[in-house]
Amino acid sequence: MSEGSWLNRRAFLKGAGATALAGAATSGASLLHPVTAGAAVQDGSGQFDFDTPYDRIGTDCAKWDTIIERHGAENIQVAMGVADMDFKCAPVITEALMDRVKHENWGYLKMPEDFFPAIVDWNRTRHGLEINPDLMALSDGVHPALIAALKALARPGSKVLLTTSTYSGFYMDLRESHTLAEESPLIIDNGVHRLDFDDLESRISQETDVLILCNPQNPTGNCWSPEDLMRLGQLCLERRVVVLADEIHCDFVTRGQKYTPFASLPDKNVVNNSVTFQSGSKTFSLAAMKVAWFHSTNPEYFRKVQDQHMAQTNTLGVVAHHAALRGGAEWLDQLLVYLDGNHDLVEQYLRDNVPQIKYTKAQGTYLAWLDVSQIGEAIGAAEKAVAATETEEEEVTPEDIVVRWLVENAGVYTNPGSNYGPGGEGWVRMNLGASRQLIQVALDNIAEAMNSL
Ligand SMILES: Cc1ncc(COP(=O)(O)O)c(C=O)c1O
C-alpha cells in the first residue's frame, strides 16, 4: 500500500469516527453487529472480487513485509510464504468492525451471548459436527491452546507423535511444553501423501503421550479420510496416546474432497480420546485477530487443558469472528471456488510448462506442496547448503538454497520444505491464497527462470 493510500485510509476512518455512535450505545445487551447471512456482497452481480490484487506492502504484514525486509523489495515480486491470504476480508467483517469502532471504549470484554452459538452453528451447518458448548473454550490462537493441551496431557520430556511433513509451528509448541518430537514421515504414493501406519505404530512407546494430527494437513494438503482417521484413532486409543486434532484448515477443501472432523468419527471412545482445535483465522484470514477455540467430548481432558490455559481474547477479534461465522458463508463459498481454480492453474501450468517441478493438487488448504528436487539437483543445492552453513550462523538446508534461488531468479518467495520435518527434503510450500494474476506472475517468472538452468 502506498503512503498516499495509507493517509486516505486514515482520513476515512477518522470520518467514520466523526459520525459515530448513537446506534452502538443503544443496541442493548451486545455491541455485536447484527449480521445477516450473505449481506454486503461486493458488486451488483453478487460476486465478491478476489481477482483484483490487494496490495498489502507497507502494512506491517508478515507475509510481504518480512520477506521484503529480508530479501530486498527489488527481489520480491510475489510473496507466497506464511499462511494467510492476500484478499480483502469478507465485507461483513469490515462492516461489523467499523460499527464496533464507533463505540469508543475498549474496556474488558464479556463474551457476547451469541458467540459460542455462532461457532456451534458453523460447525453443524458446514461440517455436520455437533459441539457441546459446555466443553468448548476460547483461546487467543491455536498455538496457545495446543501448548496448554501439551502441558496438560503430555509429560515433560515425553514424545509427541507427528506425521511429517507437518506444520512447522508444532515444533515451537513442543519446545514451549518441554516435549520431544517423534516423527513418522508420510509415504508418497503416486504424488499423494499417506499415513504410514506400521511406522507410526513402531514409534509408540511408554514415552509417547500425545499425537498431533493436522487435518487437513499443512503443508501436504491431505484431507484425511474417515477410514484413515478411524485407524489412527483406534491405534492411539489402544496405545493410550491422546489425539490433539489441529483442524484450523478445516474450511478449505478442493473440488470433490471432504474434510472429516476427527470428533465426528462413529466410535465414541475414539472421539473421547481427543481434543480438537479450530479458528476462523485461516478461513477468513483473521490471523492477527487472535481468536481460536478448542473442544472435546471428554470432560476430563477438557478440564485438564483449561487448567493450563488462559485465554486473552480481544474485542475486535471476537467481533470479526462473530460477523464471519454468522455472515461470511457466501464469501467463503465463492472463495473456495476461486482457490480451487488457483490449485488447478498451478497443477496444469507446471505440468505443461515446468515439468521439472511436480505438483499433485491438494485435497484441502490453500497451500501447494511442490516437489522441487530437480531444481535442487540442477543448482547443486546440497553442496551449496553445506558451504553456506559454514559461513552463516544457522544451518542452511538444500531447500533454503532452492528458496533463495527462486527469489533471486524468479522474484518468488516460498517456504523451504525442511521447515516441516522429515519428508520435506526436496520440497517447497507455495501459498495460493492470492489473486490469480499474482499466481500467474509467479508461474511465468518461475518458468522463465527455469530456462536459465
Ligand atoms: C496447522 C496450523 N496450526 C496452527 C496455526 C497457527 O494458529 P494460530 O495463529 O491460531 O496460533 C497454523 C498457521 O499457519 C497452522 O497452519
Notes on the protein architecture:
With 453 residues, the protein is an alpha/beta fold. The protein folds into two domains: 74-86 and 330-451, Aspartate Aminotransferase, domain 1 (Alpha-Beta Complex), CATH 3.90.1150; 115-327, Type I PLP-dependent aspartate aminotransferase-like (Major domain) (Aspartate Aminotransferase, domain 2, 3-Layer(aba) Sandwich), CATH 3.40.640. Helices cover 42% and strands 13% of the residues. The protein is built from 16 helices and 14 strands. Strand 5 (187-189) and strand 6 form a beta hairpin. It is globular.
Order of helices and strands: HHEHHEHEHEEEHEHEHEEHHHEHHHEEEH
Assign the CATH class of the largest domain: Alpha Beta
User: Rough shape?
Assistant: globular
Task: Tell me which ligands are bound.
Answer: pyridoxal-5'-phosphate
CATH 4th-level superfamily of the largest domain: Type I PLP-dependent aspartate aminotransferase-like (Major domain)
Low-confidence sequence ranges:
1-27
> What would the CATH topology of the largest domain be?
Aspartate Aminotransferase, domain 2
Give, in spatial order, the strands making up the sheet with the most strands: 2-10-9-8-7-3-4
Number-wise, the strands total 14
Share of β-strand residues: 5-15%
